[in-house]
Write a structure and sequence with these properties.
Strand order of the largest sheet: 1-2-3
Number of strands: 5
Helix content: 40-55%
Structural class: alpha+beta
Shape: rod-shaped
Order of helices and strands: HHEEEHHHHHHHEE
Number of helices: 9
Oligomer: single chain
Strand content: 5-15%
Length: 205
């Protein structure tokens, strides 16, 4: 009879229905093919979007209809935004670490940027600026640590000697950036730094 499907045609249709999800989700399927499939399967689609969701009302041949609601994609700027937890972690780590060290710690913890990239020093510096986090230098200054000039004036030496004494462990300080620039702990007034002895040690006769 005309209008009736043969067994072969039915088998072909069943195969298409079975294969459709694989065809649709196959990365090699062009967008134009997906549109063509949608036109064959759907009579009409009406989509409405609000702030958080997209709702699609779909009508199929034969009068059937269905409604699908999915989360709305975030704006590209929000997708790339640094997660709040990352910002909070950077803020916490700044108390004890410079930017390069912070990047290493974040990577060791398996964390990534808003775009899924590993961290490096410049990204951490950018987070500090963007979210107006107090810099490590500012934190150390707020804690009362001294610049090389202030330390030199306090002890009565020049700044190069301050740096040399820090390297020798005579005075204590902390680095505040990846260049190695340092702020210094004020010396104890009751225990001023001991000046290193100069000259050759005496030899036994």
């Amino acid at each position: 009879h005309t209008g009736q499907l043969t067994d072969t045609q039915r088998a072909r249709i069943d195969q298409l229905v079975t294969d459709l999800p694989a065809i649709w989700h196959d990365p090699a399927t062009p967008a134009r093919e997906r549109k063509r499939i949608a036109r064959l399967l759907l009579t009409d689609v009406t989509a409405c979007r609000d702030r958080d969701t997209i709702t699609a009302h779909m009508r199929f041949p034969g009068g059937q209809d269905t409604t699908l609601t999915v989360p709305a994609p975030k704006p590209i700027g929000e997708q790339r935004k640094t997660p709040a937890q990352i910002v909070a972690t950077v803020d916490e780590l700044l108390d004890e670490h410079v930017s390069g060290q912070i990047a290493e710690i974040l990577n060791q913890r398996g964390l990534t940027t808003g775009t899924g990239q590993p961290f490096h020093r410049r990204i951490v510096d950018n987070i500090i600026r963007t979210y107006r986090l107090p810099s490590r230098r500012q934190r150390l200054r707020d804690a009362g640590m001294l610049t090389p000039t202030e330390m030199a004036k306090l002890i009565g030496i020049n700044t190069q000697t301050v740096k040399a004494w820090w390297r020798a462990g005579i005075v204590s300080g902390q680095r505040y950036n990846d260049k190695g620039e340092t702020l210094y702990h004020p010396p104890d007034p009751d225990k001023p730094p001991k000046r290193p002895k100069t000259g050759r040690p005496a030899t036994a006769r």
